[in-house]
Amino acid sequence: MTENRVQPRFATTTEAGVVTVHCAGDLDLATTPRLRDVLLSPFHGSASAVVADLTETTFCDSTVFSVLVESYREALARGIPYAIAAAKTAVARPLAILGLDRVLPLHTGIAEARAAVAGMGAGQVS
């Protein structure tokens, strides 16, 4: 039986100091090191806010959730506004089941996530 996996894709864009990290496709243990790199690197640069865009993520496992928590903790430690956009069931539903939707700054779409970080001042993290 052949698996129908969707290859992971990562891209980073910056607009007015807000870094958006796009993470698409299937994310799992094999992609966690790359995911960690792309999600944490904006915090070591000049980002005024960070949005993790997982709206095109088709699968993720628990290792992805640990990276999301790690990136949120980094945002809190540095006082950088941070939001996660995760509309698909592949991400939003497991986060809800684990109760992480009550801890992480989770939004249903990229526009909502960007609006959330734009509305926060420096040092104010959702």
Query: Class, according to the CATH hierarchy?
Result: Alpha Beta
Question: CATH superfamily assignment?
Answer: STAS domain
Largest sheet: 6 strands, mixed
Please provide the ordered H/E string of secondary-structure elements: EEHEEHEHEH
Structural class: alpha/beta
Strand percentage: 25-35%
Helix content: 25-40%
Task: Give start-end ranges of low-pLDDT stretches.
Answer: 122-126
Radius of gyration: 14 Å
Count of the separate structural domains: 1
**CATH architecture title:** 2-Layer Sandwich
Total count of strands = 6
Report the end-to-end length measured between terminal Cα atoms.
Answer: 44 Å
Helix segment count? Answer: 4
Describe the structure in your own words:
- The structure is a single chain.
- The protein has 126 residues and is an alpha/beta fold.
- It has a single domain, classed as Transcription Regulator spoIIAA.
- It has four helices and six strands; from the N terminus they run E-E-H-E-E-H-E-H-E-H.
- The protein has helices spanning 32-40, 62-78, 89-98, 110-118; strands at residues 9-15, 18-27, 49-53, 57-60, 82-85, 106-107.
- Strands 1, 2, 3, 4, 5 and 6 form a six-stranded mixed beta sheet that branches.
- A hairpin with a 2-residue loop joins strand 1 (9-15) and strand 2 (18-27).
- Helix 1 (32-40) packs parallel to helix 2.
- The chain is globular and about 40 Å long.
- Residues 122-126 have low confidence and may be disordered.
